[in-house]
Specification:
226 residues, Double Stranded RNA Binding Domain, DNA polymerase, domain 1, 52% helix
């Protein structure tokens, strides 16, 4: 006959005293409250891992920060995952990675990491120019956007007003710099592929004056004749 676990009560939890060794109070469905010798009380979900079938513990939180009702709610959610052969620990890691992707791997943070490398490859003045262009035209709109959420249409829409002003060289340089940042993100495993590779096709190309080019060639010829 299966053992029936009597559900815990808040009164029982509050009155639980520490001992020389830690011990558990059981609530059923894998939920237990671990009483430490120092008097702290921690909720634990004990279960069999779907793949290995080995026992494992998932820390849920500390009592009374996590109430009995909320601990039971988390236990129910964990058991629902197990019913789908999903390990609650793996699901927690996935959620943590998603949270990290949103809050840490933002466009501006990845840009800063890229720039730390880029600045050693160019002159100090050019490095300042690169960062200022991003601060002026890019960061105000997408600095907090997760790098994994950046799309080509989003960037094209961002650069179109600059093109409309006739600043085609600025658009060209920003496109190049944005591509470098996204290539960096790809190489770091933050995105699967650079979505901005073909965005230059969406814009007009800068036109250089023929007279300027001819003047430059003439200067080269004259220098060569000396």
């Amino acid at each position: 006959m299966a053992k029936v676990t009597t559900r815990l009560t808040d009164k029982e939890i509050k009155s639980a005293k520490p001992s020389d060794k830690e011990y558990n109070l059981f609530d059923g469905d894998g939920l237990r409250l671990r009483i430490k010798p120092n008097g702290s009380k921690h909720w634990i979900f004990n279960y069999y891992r779907p793949t290995s079938r080995k026992r494992a513990n998932l820390s849920l939180g500390k009592y009374p920060d996590l109430s009995l009702a909320n601990a039971r709610k988390m236990t129910l959610e964990a058991n629902e995952l197990l019913a789908q052969s999903i390990d609650p620990q793996d699901d927690r890691k996935r959620q943590q990675e998603e949270h990290k992707s949103v809050h840490q791997h933002t466009f501006i943070n990845v840009s800063k990491e890229w720039f730390e490398i880029k600045r050693d490859e160019v002159t100090p003045d050019y490095a300042v120019d690169i960062w200022r262009s991003l601060e002026l035209h890019i960061f105000p709109s997408i600095s907090g956007v997760p790098i994994s959420s950046i799309t080509a249409p989003q960037i094209i829409e961002l650069l179109k007003p600059i093109e409309a002003k006739g600043s085609l060289e600025t658009v060209k340089r920003l496109s190049q710099r944005l591509n470098e940042i996204m290539n960096f993100a790809t190489n770091c495993g933050l995105v699967q592929a650079n979505p901005l590779i073909g965005i230059k096709a969406a814009f007009k190309k800068p036109q250089y004056r023929t007279s300027t080019i001819l003047t430059g060639l003439a200067s080269i010829n004259l220098t060569g004749c000396r």
